[in-house]
Design a protein that fits this description.
Structural class of chain B: alpha/beta
Distance between the termini of chain A: 55 Å
Strand content of chain A: 35-45%
Shape of chain A: globular
Radius of gyration of chain A: 21 Å
Order of helices and strands of chain A: HHHHEEEHEEEEEEEEEEEEEEEEEEHHH
Distance between the termini of chain B: 11 Å
Shape of chain B: globular
Number of strands of chain B: 25
Helix content of chain A: 10-25%
Largest sheet of chain B: 10 strands, mixed
Strand content of chain B: 25-35%
Strand order of the largest sheet of chain B: 4-3-7-10-13-15-18-21-23-25
Largest interface: A-B, 34 and 35 residues
Number of domains of chain A: 2
Number of helices of chain B: 13
Number of strands of chain A: 21
Oligomer: heterodimer
Number of domains of chain B: 1
Radius of gyration of chain B: 22 Å
Helix content of chain B: 25-40%
């Protein structure tokens, strides 16, 4: 059997297509074959998730299942322009590292996954089919390590979906971020692209004792793309994972974040905002597992939905019996701007310890007519008044991003979105 | 420490008395053979002297049930249930019907005495007309309704309140029109099972413009060994009618688990209002989790008409496992759905309970207040759905779920689903989980209350919003039940 024959065979769609791709590429993929085979077995058994899976009740992957995805072309000649980098920047095109466009960080050690392929224990391909898919087909990614006590400052991770070929491409980058004891870093992920493609990244984050990672994701993929990301974070004693996701792009997007506080006194912040319109579907799914005492988790998730967009939030706080004195808080709010928009929210508490303080709140509604009226009576035109109120609504979440450059990137993307919205 | 000794004493005193409804009544029973088959369904239908259409309806439900699978999504764990190892029909052997107190089986009367059904009503249950009491009772013993009181007063007002088996015979048009219209036969596994084998329950019909002159009440009791109780309740309120209905349940202590799978359907037409209150005190099993009732219940109300209102209030302290989601389908414009719930679990009890509010009509409103208390090794889950459909402009929901944890080995879960497809709808959900604050306990203890009394007081305060919704007679009983259910959980 040779690879060329495989590649020319009529393309299979959905899960079958991915399995066929694995059969063709298996020998050439980097890293541990047994891990990949196990993941392939698990993916073969479960396939792509369907709405019958409770975790996928509100997000339908049939549009992904209906397409045949191809391996991205070797994109050395892909043309793209990025604004000048303020600091370290790692650029990936169709999931492959582009050294020529990157500027390596000073404080952190970087290796492309293709050269140091290791699957760590945080990711759970056996439980999450998309992670199994990633494990099976991962080619490249960022392996980034910040040594003990070092502040690596701002590191940008840019992913570009090149599109442009006759067939939609699928890429499954595998990133691993490790922060040593007392280390610090702000990681700004920017995800952009053109055309139809599937971006299925998996990132594992290990935060050691007293370390702090601020992880800001600006998902602004092509409006025709599929973005299905899974992040795993393990937080040791006194560590902090401060995550923020802004979902603006993609036709169908799911950001799934699993955090585990396994040392006492740790903190996890999983904040997010989704601003969607047209027929976009955005899903933020989070799990915070409190395994150790005296940890705190905070979540503020905002949805702004226009057109026929659908926003989903599923957030679960789990408190194990050992995790006494847990302080968990979750707030989820949605603003529906059009009669055809839809929001589905499932905040969940699972608590096995008694000395805890956990709460969640959720609200859904439209813009307050009284507030609009107030602004109108002060001479603010309706369109601006609406914009002001929506920005104020989002600001409650955005203000939780403390790094000025990261915050500026989010604000810039939102302003561009508003210009299109009101044009 | 003296306080500890005192607590232990109190606990022993109470757990010694334990579940006060744990008696078994020795009665002559008419028992169908174990197992479920079309023949058993025919037998039930025949015993009930049902018309042919009812039998067909049951058989269709049985067919649907065979094709369904037991739901697994709830956070409850139990050994598989052998549906062929149950008696689907058990009835106290009746003579021609109790015309006077003497004709009623004295054992049965004793049972009602122990259950605490008021003396006057017991006299009425036995056919002696009493005066003054304003609660009409329908008592269901295992599978059949044994007596219904105050029939005459009610019929003067035009209200029909009778066992559903009687309604099938006497009011077939009404039953045909409404039975299964809120909970279709194939709605879920347990509803299908119930539709196939239900043996009795209550039927209430309140005609146009009538305010039911008294509270209606049903007592359910599972008595016979290895029986499943499958009661079916149907309440219909025509335009601008009103009824308040109370339901109480008990069962004897047993080592094995007993199955209870009821279906309750409520229909409120234009301007009608139905208030349905439950105090569920089925046998919860012993301190090690042996025995107890599996309570798998489907309750749903349809607000069909504009400005109709359905209100569910429940105090759930019993059952080894509770699986119950009293829901409202708000079809009529400006209709209102309410759900007030206190669920207490102790020892090894498991409760997965909550509600669904489906908003279809304009300006529909719903309120959910759920208080979960878990102690011992128990697990208590609130599971709820609020769904706003595109037509439900101006819909409004407020949900509040609070959980209280007592002890290190219990669990409390909250699983709300919120789905909104109308921008003018407003939905709010709040949930908290906490334990009883040390300072609150200290405050009470320093004023001379025992640990148990202090916990009782705090828990009653925690549940007050719900208890206030109960009719007065039930509120007192419910408060006592809460205290008894939590005995032995602190110390």
């Amino acid at each position: 059997m040779n690879d060329i024959a495989q590649a020319r065979a009529p393309a299979a769609i959905g899960a079958e297509g991915f399995l066929a791709r694995y059969a063709g590429l298996r020998a050439r993929l980097p890293g541990d074959e047994t891990r990949r085979d196990a993941a392939a077995e698990s993916f073969r058994a479960r396939g792509l998730p369907t709405r019958r899976d409770e975790a996928w009740k509100y997000t339908d992957l049939r549009p992904v299942a209906a397409l045949a995805f191809h391996e991205p072309l070797l994109a050395t000649d892909t043309d793209f322009k990025l604004p000048p980098a303020p600091g370290a920047r790692l650029v990936f095109v169709d999931g492959r590292f582009r050294e020529d466009a990157s500027r390596l960080p000073d404080g952190a050690a970087f290796t492309p996954f293709a050269r140091a392929p290791r699957f760590d224990a945080l990711a759970r391909p056996e439980a999450h089919p998309l992670v199994a898919l990633n494990t099976m087909l991962a080619e490249d990614g960022a392996v980034l390590t910040v040594p003990d006590g070092v502040d690596a400052g701002l590191v940008e991770l840019v992913s570009i979906g090149a599109g442009g070929t006759r067939h939609p491409a699928a890429f499954h980058p595998r990133h691993a971020i490790r922060l040593g004891r007392g280390a610090q870093m702000t990681l700004l992920e920017t995800l952009i692209g053109e055309g139809v493609y599937l971006h299925n990244p998996v990132m594992s984050v290990m935060v050691a004792e007293g370390a702090a990672l601020a992880h800001v994701r600006l998902q602004n993929e092509s409006q025709a793309a599929f973005h299905l990301a899974t992040v795993y974070a393990g937080i040791a004693e006194g560590g902090t994972y401060d995550g923020f996701t802004l979902n603006l792009g993609a036709r169908l997007c799911r950001t799934e974040i699993h955090t585990r506080l396994h040392g006492p006194g740790g903190a996890a912040h999983l904040n997010a905002a989704q601003v969607l319109r047209g027929v976009q579907h955005g899903d933020v799914t989070t799990v915070v597992a409190h395994d150790a005492p005296n940890c705190a988790s905070r979540q503020t998730v905002k949805n702004v939905l226009d057109g026929r967009a659908r926003g989903v939030f599923q957030g679960r706080i789990e408190v194990a019996q050992a995790a006494q004195k847990t302080d968990g808080y979750q707030m989820n709010q949605a603003l529906l701007l059009s009669p055809d928009a839809e929001v589905d929210s499932k905040p969940e508490l699972r608590i096995f310890a008694d000395d805890v303080k956990c709460s969640h709140g959720a609200t859904v509604g439209a813009l307050d007519p009284d507030q609009l009226f107030y602004l109108r009576t002060r001479g603010v035109p309706e369109i601006e008044a609406r914009a002001m109120l929506v920005r104020a609504f989002l600001d409650e979440a955005l203000t939780l991003v403390s790094h000025p450059a990261a915050r500026a990137a989010l604000d810039g993307a939102l302003s561009a979105w508003w210009e299109q919205e009101t044009a | 420490m003296a306080a500890d000794t005192e607590t232990i004493d109190t606990v022993n005193a109470v757990t010694g008395s334990g579940y006060k409804y744990g008696f078994e009544t020795v009665l002559e029973m008419d028992l169908a053979p174990k197992g479920l088959s079309p023949d058993i369904i025919r037998l039930i239908s025949e015993r009930k002297q049902e018309p042919a259409w009812m039998l067909e309806w049951r058989l269709a439900a049985y067919e649907a049930w065979l094709k369904m699978r037991e739901p697994e999504w709830a956070f409850v764990h139990h050994a598989p249930i052998d549906y062929q190892d149950l008696h689907y029909y058990a009835a106290p052997k009746k003579k021609t019907g109790p015309a006077s107190l003497d004709e009623v089986d004295p054992e049965l009367l004793k049972t009602y005495e122990k259950l605490g059904i008021p003396l006057k009503e017991r006299a009425i249950l036995a056919g002696v007309e009493g005066a003054g009491s304003n609660v009409a009772v329908d008592a269901v013993f295992d599978s059949v309704s044994v007596a219904t009181t105050f029939r005459e007063t009610l019929s003067k007002a035009g209200v029909i309140f009778c066992p559903i088996s009687e309604a099938v015979r006497e009011h077939p048009d009404l039953v045909k029109q409404y039975l299964g219209s809120v909970v279709p036969v194939a709605d879920n596994y347990f509803a299908a099972l119930n539709s196939a084998v239900f043996t009795d329950g209550s039927f209430v019909f309140v005609p146009k413009g009538v305010r039911c002159p008294m509270e209606l009440s049903t007592y359910f009791r599972i008595n016979a060994r290895n029986t499943g109780q499958f009661e079916r309740t149907l309440i219909v309120c025509e335009d601008n009618a009103h009824v308040s209905y109370l339901e109480g349940c008990t069962a004897p202590m047993r080592d094995e688990n007993q199955l209870h799978a009821a279906v309750v359907e409520l229909v409120a037409l234009e301007g009608a209002s139905i208030k349905y209150s439950t105090v569920q005190n089925w046998y919860p099993g012993d301190a090690e989790g042996r025995g107890g009732i599996y309570n798998f219940v489907t309750k749903r109300g349809a607000c069909r008409g504009a400005r109709s209102r359905i209100s569910w209030t429940q105090v759930e302290t019993g059952s080894a496992i509770t699986w119950k989601y009293p829901s409202c389908v708000l079809e009529g414009d400006e209709s209102v759905g309410e759900f007030y719930s206190v669920a207490v679990t102790n020892n090894h009890q498991q409760a997965d309970t909550g509600t669904k509010m489906i908003h279809l009509g304009r300006n529909t409103r719903s309120t959910i207040v759920s208080k979960g208390i878990s102690a011992g090794h128990s697990s208590n889950t609130y599971r709820g759905l609020v769904r706003i459909l595109p037509r439900a402009a101006g819909a409004r929901n407020h949900t509040q779920c609070d959980s209280l944890l007592i002890g290190h080995d219990c669990a409390a879960h909250t699983v709300p689903y919120i789905e909104s497809r109308n921008p003018s709808a407003k939905v709010e959900h709040e949930a908290t989980t906490s334990k009883i604050a040390e300072d609150q306990l200290f405050y009470c203890r320093s004023r001379g209350l025992s640990q148990e009394d202090a916990v009782g007081l705090i828990v009653n305060g925690f549940c007050k919003e719900v208890l206030n919704e109960l009719p007065m007679e039930f509120a007192v009983e419910a408060q006592k039940l809460l205290a008894v259910s939590l005995e032995g959980s602190v110390g």
